[in-house]
Specification:
With about 350 residues, this protein is of the alpha+beta class. The protein has a four-stranded mixed sheet, sandwiched between helices.
Length: about 350
């Protein structure tokens, strides 16, 4: 941002061009982060012109890939209505006390954890570094604040707020902290080693979670196996995300839900399924499930407000109960198979 070499600017544009062709959402995240850092850096160091030029070149790189970007953005995440977006954003923000609690992850592998050491390092760097390094730490703190419930009212009012699911920016925030430490030339080596040690130790307790998939009981595996076995087309798991990511990678049949469903052309209908279950619109729920091609439905029982009415609606619409236990109900719609 501070160097005025045309070669660096062209390289920035080319990188953004390649990123756009690789992953539109990742490009948006990096673009938003670059904009945030440019604004913070410009305000702190009074260097607005250089930052503006950098942003122009980054934008030009993205626009060079518009022949692919425009059709890629039609429908999907940008077509979700404001109410659905608000529901998703609410689920993707967290109390700050939880985000920096290092013990929650030991009991719940799905818990969001920003990192106590990362938050401390960002605060320390912001208050103790020079104007050249402070923007890195301040930008990281802004992203950290954006993951909190306190930031939700602001995020909901931002334009194109489908892009501001800030928990996805966490790794970018951590990278900013790392770059800030790297450029902090006046920092004593002893303090640098101490800060890096804290970051490594704090992160080390999460390393074993990367390949850990044994938190959920065997009964959940059994339930998903049953749903997968009887499915003729697709399986829909209505669990309010309480089962975490486990159903997405374990279920052996095609699914309605799954990773990156927000980018699907049917994203709005998928969100409406959750809304219908929460509000007791069971007629709509069962009908939309069929529209999405799912003949098998697994519902978490504690999400059902009126069990007797749901059973009646399921029967009237042709669904057959195949399995029930203390936690879930599995329904199957008779589908003719070859």
């Amino acid at each position: 941002l501070t160097e005025k070499r045309i070669g660096n600017l062209i390289a920035l544009a080319f990188i953004m061009f390649l990123l756009t062709l690789t992953h539109a959402m990742l490009t948006a995240m990096i673009g938003v982060s670059l904009f945030l850092f440019s604004v913070v850096y410009g305000v702190v160091n009074k260097s607005y012109k250089e930052n503006f030029i950098s942003l122009v070149y980054a934008f030009m790189g993205i626009m060079c890939a518009s022949f692919w970007l425009y059709p890629a953005l039609k429908g999907g995440i940008l077509s979700i209505d404001s109410e659905a977006v608000a529901n998703v954003m609410k689920d993707l923000t967290y109390p700050i006390k939880n985000s920096i609690n290092p013990f929650l992850r030991l009991h719940n592998i799905e818990a969001y954890y920003y990192g106590l050491a990362f938050a401390f390092t960002a605060l320390f760097g912001f208050f103790m570094s020079t104007k050249k390094e402070a923007p890195y730490f301040l930008s990281a703190l802004i992203i950290f604040f954006g993951t909190s419930k306190a930031a939700l009212p602001l995020l909901e009012k931002l334009p194109v707020n489908q892009l501001f699911w800030i928990n996805r920016f966490t790794t970018i925030s951590m990278a900013m902290i790392g770059v800030g430490l790297l450029y902090w030339k006046s920092l004593r080596k002893s303090i640098l080693i101490l800060l890096l040690s804290l970051l490594v130790i704090d992160s080390a307790f999460s390393f074993h979670l990367l390949g850990f998939n044994g938190q959920f009981p065997d009964t959940l595996s059994k339930e998903l196996d049953i749903a997968s076995k009887i499915s003729s087309q697709r399986v829909a798991v209505l669990d309010g995300s309480q089962f975490g990511s486990f159903p997405s990678f374990y279920t052996k049949a095609p699914q309605v839900y799954g990773w990156a469903w927000q980018g699907a052309g049917t994203a709005e209908n998928i969100v409406l399924l959750n809304t219908a279950l929460e509000n007791g619109y069971y007629e709509v729920m069962f009908d939309r499930i069929l529209e999405l091609g799912a003949d098998t439905l697994l519902i978490k029982k504690d999400l059902i407000n009126e069990l007797s009415r749901l059973e009646k609606v399921a029967l009237n619409q042709g669904y057959i109960e195949k399995y029930r236990d203390d936690r879930v109900i599995i329904y199957k719609y008779p589908v003719a198979t070859k």
